[in-house]
Design brief:
alpha+beta; 3-stranded mixed sheet
Length: about 80
Amino acid sequence: MHTDHSVNIKKLRRHAKAVLREAILEPVMILDDEIPAAYLVSAEKYDTMNKKLYDIHGLERVGKLSSRKPAKAFADEL
């Protein structure tokens, strides 16, 4: 995830409401000792990302299933 906006954990603790408002507009990278620890995104953005990942995962599963050799089955075995 790319973002130009970051805050350290101390600022997040002191100004949580303000950082949450910022995250509605764009993702915020949370830093712990200058190391990226997490990303804060709006609920809407999170839902959109989850839906896209679900779609991608679903397409991957379909691709894997369609690449398998069909199994032989006889009507009396079903």
